[in-house]
Amino acid sequence: MSALGRKLVRDLVHLRGSLTAIAVMAASGVSVFVAMRSMHGYLLGTQARYYDEYRFADVFAHLTRAPAATARRLAAIPGVDRLESRIVFDAVLDVPGLAEPAVGRFVSVPEDAQPRLNRLHLRRGRLVSRGRTNEVVISEAFARANDLEIGDTLSAILNGRWQRLRVVGWALSPEFVYEIRGGADIFPDNRRFGVLWMGNRAAQAAFGMRGAFNDVTIEVSRGADEADVIARVDDVLARYGGVGAYGRDDHVSHRFVTDEIQETSVTSVLIPAIFLGVTAFLLHVVITRLVGTQRDQIAVLKAFGYSNSAVGWHYLGLGVAPVVLGAGAGVAGGIWFAVKLAAIYARFYQFPVIRYQQETGVLVAAVAIAVGSAVLGAIGAVRRAVALPPAEAMRPETPAHFRRGVVERLGLGRHLALPTRMIARSLERRPVKAALGIVGIALATAIIVTGGYTFDAIGLMKHVQFHEVQREDMTVLFHQPRPLRVRHDLARLPGVRRVEPFRMAAVRLRYGARTERTAVLGMAAGGELHGITDRDRRHHDVPPQGLLLTTFLGERLGVGPGDTVTVEVLEGRHAVHLLAVAGFVDEMLGTMAYADLSTANRLLGEGRVVSGAWLAVDDSARTTLYGTIKRLATVSSATVRETALTGFERTIAESFRISLTMMVAFACVIAAGIVYNGARVALSERGRELASLRVLGFTRGEVARMLLGEQAVITLAAIPAGLGIGYGFSWLVATRFGTEMFRVPLVVTGRTYLFSAAVVIAAAALSALVVRRRLDRIDLIAVLKTRE
């Protein structure tokens, strides 16, 4: 080994504490990058292969009822490559062992054959057979959640008749990768919602649709204009109660999966960038200070003939080595993390292939980015070492010019103990070093705040959605709109204390050249069971005239209060109206247009009818009410708020909390590393000074107070700055994670601030104990023999 090689090893050993902290930070950033970037590629590739192999449709359209011959007209539209007409209905299910009513989405498929589009991936059992009208294939997630095996039965009211259905298979479909009903649902509840595939003839008989269909899926020809196909499909289906065709981008399952893929892409860049940026900063501080303390060694190396490039490579290697080691550990941790995330995604996204395979390119990119951050952090110190002339480097650095500081000028020195005066003087005379220390600890604090913020945001979303928006105990939807007097029938059900009906309808809003597909929710003024609440927890009343839009929807349309939008109703007669925008509500979930119930009825050109109702229910009568609703022929679905809340919490616990806890843990480690590093560097820089004070008669406690007191002041000054920077990082995360279905609010609670400050203070206290032990064991003679 060369002399420089041996020196490199000695320096690495000597600085093992500081460099270990840097390696841990690099490992944190690399592991997050590997895990999230791998998930991005995994989801994107799996989605593309699944869609292609199982022929996921490009265009979807639902309608009231159309004769079978209409399908031939649709198939003749230019650009339609493949088409499949079918029957799709929601119905309430009575599942063995489940007290609450479940909702099943029945989808017709050919008997003894695969559908042409949205083919089934059969997991167990077989497809439905011709002539067996009671057979169904059910979605695997629904089967597993309810412990349903092949041959088990469940019951449902189909078109007014109570029917018992037998399970003959489990399956997956590209149409239901993310298996939710849509509407207000954002998290899957596989125990209470599932998909059931039924034979075409059995579905026609069960739902009274002989020789007819109410749903169509289309594969668009390569190069064809999808928008033109959708427009032509709408023209054909308008007379049959079509509610507006739409493409993949508006498909509920596809949109959720695509949004998740986009979020993993953002996370894989944003969070590692913060971690590795802090790593580069800390590395810059450590190597710069090391060069300053090794001026004489640099001079000797150059005097003995080592070139500037050799010296530069030596210090660059000193900076890169811990990052490379950390990157290696980060790659291993990232792979482990990715495997865990893949298992979680496999539970929520129903892909047929769940095997995770690591991409070599991601690993190479992670290491390259880490090394690049190391070079960026160390390059300034390396240039300083290269630029030092040997003769100048042999001399100690020119002492700072002495001047009276603020403490002396104000006459405060005589009121302070000597150690305290020395702390104040040191901070005053080394402002740049103090500032760098403050910035480093502030960044560590900011990272913890950012990690904690995500928990605060999710907590706020849960509280607002399930305690201030959804105050009802149950929501029921009808197969068809019902007269308003149906509320009296619902009020007579066992245990129902209050009924508030609503009317929901699909619409298309236009403003200028912009168009958005959404729904209008008509509510009665003065309702108590369902609120309109924004992310700041401000309640909004239903406007007596016009529309109240969610802020996200308003931004997509580019409208402001008072502007007039064109409302095209996608039900009934497809009426078109002009309505003013009455205001906006900054909701966190979905996009919606709110209106007074009478306004919604007027838009639809109908009498006083409703499509569902919110119910308040006595706890003592819940079981009886559930049993009654399961047998109501008019009800297509029923949702219990408590079960939705349980599903939300379970989903968060299994998905977000795992990744977020890892982030917070990484942030805490980084904070401890930065604080410890600062204390260790200060000890190495001031070792001779502190030893001199010991020889002059200062006690160990006084000397420790001088060193650690300075670090305490820096830490306490850094914490408020870090809390502010953390809020800025949180804002950056919040602005990057807004999607049509899901917006993360910007809220940082006092608990997060206190936790962040406590972690940094605890790290400072532990670092102080370690440094104090080293300070107590310092060899005074050896230190005093060394040159400045």
Structural summary, described in words:
The protein is of the alpha+beta class. It folds into four domains: 1-58 and 225-396, no CATH class; 88-208, no CATH class; 406-462 and 656-788, no CATH class; 464-647, no CATH class. It contains 23 helices and 20 strands. A six-stranded mixed β-barrel has the order 3-4-9-6-8-7. Helix 19 packs parallel to helix 22 (750-776).
Spans of at least 5 consecutive residues whose pLDDT stays below 50 are none
The strands making up the biggest β-sheet line up spatially as 3-4-9-6-8-7
Largest sheet: 6 strands, mixed, barrel
Mean pLDDT: 83
Ends distance: 29 Å
Shape: elongated
Instruction: List how many beta strands DSSP finds.
Output: 20
The residue fraction in helices comes out at 40-55%
Structurally, how many domains make up the residues? 4
Structural class: alpha+beta
How many helix segments?
23
Q: Beta fraction of the residues? A: 15-25%
Radius of gyration: 33 Å
